[in-house]
Amino acid sequence: MTFSLSDDKIQFKMNIELKISKKPVNYKKAIKLLEGKVDRVKKGGREFVWFLEHPTTYTAGIRSKNYEILNKSIKVIKTNRGGKITLHNPGQQIVYFVIDLNRRKKDIKNLVKQIENTIMSFLKIYKINSYKDSKNIGVWVKDKKIAAIGIRVSRWVAYHGFSINIENDLKAYKKIVPCGLDNNKITSIKNEKKTPYRIKKNLSKIFLSNLNKI
C-alpha cells in the first residue's frame, strides 16, 4: 500500500510504516511526530522508519557538555537521545525509527550492530571502505566520522536513529565539538570524492533487510 501525503511518501512494508520526506523537516516538529509514534508502538501499533533531512540544526544529547559549543551564537536544542552535540543540515540523510524490541530480540548491542552494518553496506555501494570503532559509536572512513548514531530505549522500544553525511556543508561543524571529536574529523560521501545517487532507495533496502536480524 502506497499513498501520497503532501511531499511525503508513506509505505507499509511487513508491519513497518515507512515514511520518506522530500523536503527538510523542522527538527522539533519531527521529534514531536516521532514521540507520538513511540506512544503508538508501545500500545501495539506499527513500527516506524522515517527518511528525512533537517534544516541546519544543532542538537545536544544527554552526554553533551557546554564547552563543546564553540560558537556561542548558535542555538542548540537539548534532546533525550544518547550521545553529545551534533549537527543536522541539508545534504545529510537522517533515518529515524521506532523499533519494538519486545517483538524482536531484547538486544541493544545487536540493534547498534545492525545499524552500523547497514551504514557500511550502504557506503560500499559508492566504493567507500568504512569501519566501526568499539570505543566510539558510529561509522568511520580514514579516521574521520561519516555517520552518527543516537538511540534512546524506553520499555524496550528503541527510537531516534542515525545520520549519514552525503553532501552536506561540513564547515558548519566548525561551530561545535561534534560527538566529542576534533571538528576536522568529519567527512561525507561527497568529501570522499564519490558521487551519491539513489540514496533513499539504496539505504532503505539495506536497513529494512537488516531489521530482520534484530
What fold name stands as the CATH topology? BirA Bifunctional Protein, domain 2
Number of structural domains: 1
The low-pLDDT segments are 1-7
Q: Main β-sheet: number of strands, strand sense, barrel status?
A: 9 strands, mixed
Q: What is the SS-derived class? A: alpha+beta
Distance between the termini: 24 Å
- The share of residues in helices is 10-25%
Q: Kindly estimate the percentage of residues that lie in beta strands according to DSSP.
A: 25-35%
CATH class: Alpha Beta
Helices, strands, pairings?
Elements: E1 2-5, E2 8-13, E3 16-21, H1 27-42, E4 47-52, E5 57-60, E6 76-78, E7 85-88, E8 92-100, H2 108-125, E9 131-132, E10 139-141, E11 144-154, E12 157-165, H3 199-211
Parallel strand pairs: 3-4, 5-6
Antiparallel strand pairs: 1-2, 2-3, 4-8, 5-7, 8-12, 9-10, 10-11, 11-12
Helix pairs in contact: 2-3
What distinguishing features does this structure have?
22% helix; disordered N terminus; alpha+beta; BirA Bifunctional Protein, domain 2; three-stranded mixed β-sheet; 214 residues; 12 strands; nine-stranded mixed β-sheet; 3 helices
